[in-house]
Amino acid sequence: MTVLSYVMVYAGSALMAFNIILYLRFAHSLLKRDSWGKESRIFFLPIVLLILFLAGYLAVGFFGEPNVIIASILFGGSIFVFVMLYLMRRAVDRIQENEHLKAKLSAAEEASRAKTFFLSNMSHDLRTPLNAIIGYTTIAKRDNVSPEERRSFLVKIDAASHQLLSIVNDVLEMGRIESGKMELNPARMDLKECMTDAGDLIHSQAEAKRIAFTASCTATDTWVMCDKNLLTRVLVNLLGNAVKFTGEGGKISLTLAETEKKADSASYEIRVKDTGIGMDPSFVEHLFTPFERERTSTISKIQGTGLGMAITKDIMDRMGGTIDVETEKGKGTEFILHLTFPLASAEEKDESASPEEMRFDGKRILLAEDNAVNREIAQMILTQAGFAVEDAENGKEVLEKLTAAGSGYYDLVLTDIQMPVMDGYTAARAIRSLPDPALRNIPIVAMTANAFAEDVVAARDSGMNAHISKPLDLKEMFSTLQNVLKVE
After folding, report:
1. Topology (CATH level 3) of domain 118-178
2. Taking the model in full, what pTM does it have?
3. What is the pLDDT of residues 252-280, one digit of tens each?
4. Could you say which of 129, 209, 304, 369 has the lowest number of CB atoms within 10 Å?
5. Are 223 and 265 in contact (CB under 8 A)?
6. Could you give the 3-state DSSP secondary structure of residue 347?
7. How far apart, in Å, are the Cα atoms of 151 and each of 69, 145, 155, 159?
């Protein structure tokens, strides 16, 4: 029994030493929490007691002659302390877990409120351009409308449709940001040309409100490696907001300055300034939060999804830049962008013809489109450019017509992606597997609303030669077809 007594005492001592280590770790994790600042001194008391217990166990083990009862009490005490430490740890973990859940619930409730507000704005903002499109279309169909009035209605319908497209793009872009799918695609571009393009897009809106818009560039090194589409998006977002929140007779300026130049890169400062209604300083903190818009009677009447600034901030972060804002209620707002880009050599000026000048006489296209309206629009555009157009409603019909006509009949296949029976990707892969080399190598171009970078890659991977996105940009469309068909 004496051997058993010593075994229990030494085992209990070892377990108590382990308990001391556990407690030290436990106390350290608790002390890192700000909420335990005032109670921090109380954590030192248990460790003193545990050390005294360990000293007592060791004294009995080395200098006493423990019997089974004393050894059992000592061993049981060590187990008891271990169990209590385990339960304390579990209790604290549960408390922390509950705090995390409460924080997540609070964040979810805030996000839900923001999205509810966003949906309310979205319903209003979608219906406004839709109402203009439907209303002006209805009026334009009347018999007593003059050609001049009808042309005016078409201009307004076109503006409303672009406004609607901008809203849809914001929602889709935000979805890509949240899913982590937005990527930069740097290419050689001219910053000065990017400024001009952005200014052109909002020029008519500024003119309609009699807003004076000026753009200036003092940078000498304007050719850089940058994602032009995304930078243009940033400038259009900022300029578009400036137009929205600036009253008639106001002023908007866009400036580009070069702040530093190194061997292979340069830094730039872009400023967008307006004399609009400005913002409340308290709202500036939430300016780049998705779905947020300042809640005032003035701003509630102005269209917007509350996504543009969040998208702008995300693009700036991805480009490694910064965006600052200076604003004063009733006096205006100025956004200041700082960006650094690798320098690039200048490209020769594009002397390509306008869409109206591009001709494709003698070329025959097989058009695959399951939507009747989209098919009719595409047929009219292509026919006016000189193409002979034949159509199919799905990929299976494309294959059938292509093989039935034989090599040399069609010059190109222009296909939608999402179609019944057989989609565009499957059709392209099937064409590339045909035994006839001439048919197998016929140019194939995607014409689809699947317009993201991964969709372009998917089109290439399926064997297509190029990708055209909807809504159709005629210059881009004809330029792509010109390159694929090698037409001068």
Report:
1. Helix Hairpins (1.10.287)
2. 0.52
3. 999 999 999 998 999 999 999 999 988 88
4. 209
5. no
6. coil
7. 105, 10, 6, 13
